[in-house]
Amino acid sequence: MLRTPTGGAGDGTATADTRWVSIGTVLTRLREEFPEVTISKIRFLEAEGLVEPQRTPSGYRKFAPGDVERLAQVLRMQRDHYLPLKVIREHLDALARGEHPVLPSPGTQRDLGDGVWESGPGAATAARIGRAELLAAAQVDEEQLAEWESYGLIVAAPEGGYDAEMVTVAKLVADLGRFGLEPRHLRAMRASADREAGLVEQLVAPLRLHRNPQTRAHAEATANELAELSVRLHAALVQTALRSRLH
C-alpha cells in the first residue's frame, strides 16, 4: 500500500515540502508495489490525461498524495484487469462523480462492434473472426481482400480466421484506396510496422521471461503503450514532413 505523506513535525499539519512530491519520489513510492514502473511510464500516463500534476514556476512536476494514489489505481487496473487506458479513465471519472462502476474480470469478453468480440489475456481463446465476417465488417469484396492479402496487408492467423485488429486494418486500407493509394503503395507501411513490432518485442522480452507472473502479465500492457507511442511518433513525423514540403 502506498504511504501518504505525513504532517510537519510538531504541529500535526502537512507542510508544502511533505504534501507535494517530485516525480522521483512518486517513482520510489510506486515501485514498492510496481517494480517495473519507470519515469517514462508516469510521464506517458500524464500525457494520456490519467493524472494532472501541478507545475512549479520553473516547470518541474509536483504531485499531491491524490495524484500518487490515482497513478497506483491506474497501474493496478492495467495489471489486474488488462484494461485499456480509455476504459481506465472512464472508470476513474465515474468514481470521481460518486458512481460505483464495476470493473470487468480478467478474460471478460467485450463487444467491439461489427460482430467482433475481444477477449482479455485470461480468456481461453483469442478473438477471431471468419472471412465472411471480415468482408462484411470492412464492406469489401473477395477480390479486394485477396489483393490485400497478396501484399501482406491482411494476414490470417496461424490457427485460422483473422484477428479482430484486421477489421481496422481492412477499413483503413479501403479508406486510403478512395484517395488513390493502392495496396502496392502501402507495402512500405507494412514493412515499417513489422520493424516497429520487432523493436517492441525486444523491449518487452525481459518482462515476458520474468519469474513473477504479474510482471509477465504486465508485458502486454507495456507493449500496448509502446505501440501507442510509436503510432503518435509516426503521425508527428508525417505531419512534420508534410509541413516542410507544403510551405
UniProtKB/TrEMBL annotation:
Select a single GO molecular function from the record's annotations and give it. DNA-binding transcription factor activity
Q: Which residues form the HTH merR-type domain?
A: 37-94
Q: Which UniProt key words apply to this protein?
A: DNA-binding
**InterPro entries on file:** DNA-bd_dom_put_sf, MerR-type_HTH_dom, MerR_fam
The superkingdom listed in its UniProt entry is: Bacteria
Q: Which SMART domains match?
A: HTH_MERR
The protein's name in its UniProt record: MerR family transcriptional regulator
Supply the source organism for this entry. Streptomyces nanshensis
